[in-house]
## 1
Amino acid sequence: MTKRKELHDGTPFTVSVPCSTANLGPGFDVLGCGLGMRMSVTCTFPESDKGLTVSYNGDSPHTVPLDPSRNLITRTAIQTAASFGQLLPTPMHVAIENPIPLGRGLGSSGTAVVAGVVLANESLGLGMDTQRILDYCLAIEGHPDNITASILGGFVASYKREHPDPAPPKEETIEYKQNYSTLYPDVPDFEAPPCNLGKHLRLKVSPKIKFVVTIPEFELQTKLARSVLPQEYPKADVIFNLQRLAVLVSTLTSDDAKDIDPAVISEAMHDRVHQKYRQHLVPGLPEILSLSYKTLPGLLGVCVSGAGPTVLCLATDNFEKIGQTVVDIFGKHSVDEAPGYEKQKGVKGSKKVGIKASFKVLEVSAEGFTVSRG
Ligand SMILES: Nc1ncnc2c1ncn2[C@@H]1O[C@H](COP(=O)(O)OP(=O)(O)O)[C@@H](O)[C@H]1O
Ligand SMILES: N[C@@H](CCOP(=O)(O)O)C(=O)O
């Protein structure tokens, strides 16, 4: 819960947040894993009359707004502070270092939301614990799988509660009442979310398993990838996913090495809830999803990472070969096979040219977000 601490004393601090891979096949909006690629956000308190300022170094620099009211990290921090009836302390400079590719299904928006909530918590000494931070992140992001992985690190299962507990009352400072709408006319006021809105549970995962993520050059915004999903599902498809979800979690968390069985894991990573509805947005996906240990030894299973278009291969060996195979399949396709792609940011150039992609071999990040001072 929330226990107010002393206000921040002006010491710089850095929030570091791991990226995530969400869903892991059948675990749509349920499973996530924090991976070893981290964004860092450093807050300093310089002598200046510029108020709140932002700088950004990293992926897609021209698409990330530096206006604090539009930047997802600072906007989230402004709104979190507002829900406590407070303004962020100023002057404050927020320096973002971000290697996580944007709009690719590696949880960049989740990491940004986590960083924003933690930034407000630290700079104002709001005293939110991990559960309360989760409540805020979940209220903003909407689904728990990617944010819980970024909050806790490791392999995480989560759910969102339908009947959470009431939020505490808001106490507004005079400064907030007088200045919020003038300072941030474009940031709608934000009510504190209900308490215990979600639950997350950290699971262990065998250290033998590595996460080969193959990242195509084009973006797929999560909002678009969610808009193509149906409102209702056939009973057979729900059962299909539930069966695989239970088996997948059991095998990945087993202490017994013989449970890391590619024949079982490859089948258990199949999904009928989101991937088939999104496959027209990710050219080459049917061929990629048909890869298996039978032709690629070491490969355990394949799925879309988050909402895509990145592809996740779980593997115990042969990582480079596996990553390159997926890169080559993307290269046989072009972005114009994906209807609606032209509405997205970041898709440019000749449409008929094969999709460029690169792969990374990532480990599970044992740590979730961290805050370091000084
Ligand atoms: N570090 C960041 N700073 C500011 N905005 C960010 C950052 N990371 C992500 N975003 C915002 O989130 C959007 C991508 O979110 P989303 O479509 O959910 O994709 P992803 O799968 O990467 O989470 C970006 O276009 C950008 O607006
Ligand atoms: N369960 C969500 C996960 C979105 O993850 P992201 O990495 O694409 O932000 C979904 O599949 O929509």
## 2
Amino acid sequence: MAAKNIVDKIWEAHTVVHGEGGVDLLYIDLHLVHEVTSPQAFEGLRLAGRRVRRPDRTFATIDHNVPTDDPHTFTDEIAKRQVEALRENARTFGITLFDLDDPRRGIVHVIGPELGLTWPGMTVVCGDSHTSTHGAFGALAFGIGTSEVEHVLATQTLWQKRPKTMEVRLVGKRRPGVTAKDIILAFIARFGPDVGQGYAIEYTGEVVRAMSMEERMTLCNMSIEAGARAGLVSPDATTVEYLRGRPYVPSGAAFEELARIWLSFASDPGATYDRVLEFDVSDVRPFVTWGTHPGLGVPLGAVVPEPSQDPARRPQELRALEYMGLEPGTPLSEVGVDVVFIGSCTNGRLEDLRLAAQVVRGRKVHPGVRALVVPGSMGVKLRAEAEGLDRIFREAGFEWRYPGCSMCLGMNPDIVPPKKRAVSTSNRNFEGRQGRDARTHLASPPVAALAAILGRIPTEEELLEALGLAEREGA
Ligand SMILES: CC(C)[C@H](C(=O)O)[C@@H](O)C(=O)O
Ligand code: SF4
């Protein structure tokens, strides 16, 4: 039998009908729904007199527009109506909704994995581009538009063009202080934000195998920022152990049987891909973006770069420098920071908060910096509180919030004011992303945490020192 990669295996296992031009009708195993991209889809069903085909495979949460100081204090009429609509739709169509006070509520891409809804070998969709996050489990997971949401609600299937496949081999040895976030930012800086266009990326190699599930999620989450539709990691023992005991995962003999099936979806040895890239992480340093797309980044300690001489890139980079209020040649460690946001579906999980807390412990937020920690879910929040992380953040002067997308995007009251500069653990730094004229620097949780303490972007040495990883003489 020919060796197959994971994308081919999942695709073939889910194809209901082969259509024309490589467009196939896929069966969808898991449909996740949030308040922003679902109202019209449900309205469409209602108008057509249809029901939801698999209410038991459809789960809804509230994340994008929810206020995070008190989730019940909606001031925005549209946001309030979207949430009420979702509540009403969940009731009418018999769907499980993790409502505002539900201990299972959170950012859609944080709770799917955390609750054990996302399994290897599944097709997972959501009206949200960062659905790729679930690919960390070896699921084929991708974002869809609202009309497709309606199609999936009605039929539990979706017409999809089969993506080309790309293997991204992460090899080498990680330097201290380098997180999954730094690796994916450095990858996008090296290969460009369009490198994944038309592809589903599978991350392979010893670096990925050694990563925790949470790190793999960060990697897959940002596949979108590399232009790809989906990002995956083949399931292994780490995947299976993460899922064991989760609320929506069976236990006992059924689990062992499931685990066997899950592992069978992993790419076969010798599987081929339409394109293969190798990325040696040995030289990757903790990273930060300076521009207005995630590919415009440099290692900590670098200077703001000169705009590219490439005529295809130069105008955009000049514009980015202007928008960001930066001069080429300025050391990034001299760039002052007004706001720090730790959270989002990229970096709002427990390991992220632990790393940030390690930097923050016993220190104080720099005067004049507004710093927020927004756990990705109620589950993350409660576990972090059980470990006392909330106290570490609060005592340092951070705000400790309820879960939601928060400052990742300007769709709720957590906004970066015009011309203010934020270091953010989220995934997008486009113009206006965190608020009108807001300036966003993407970074890892420990880098963001240290920026809050110092009131500016840190150097690599400062980061290693704060993490207790500084190289001692003679060591
Ligand atoms: C609001 C939603 C449709 C959007 C997305 O699809 O990604 C958001 O989650 C984002 O990150 O920009
Ligand atoms: S946290 Fe940000 S990237 Fe993730 S789903 Fe919410 S808005 Fe999108």
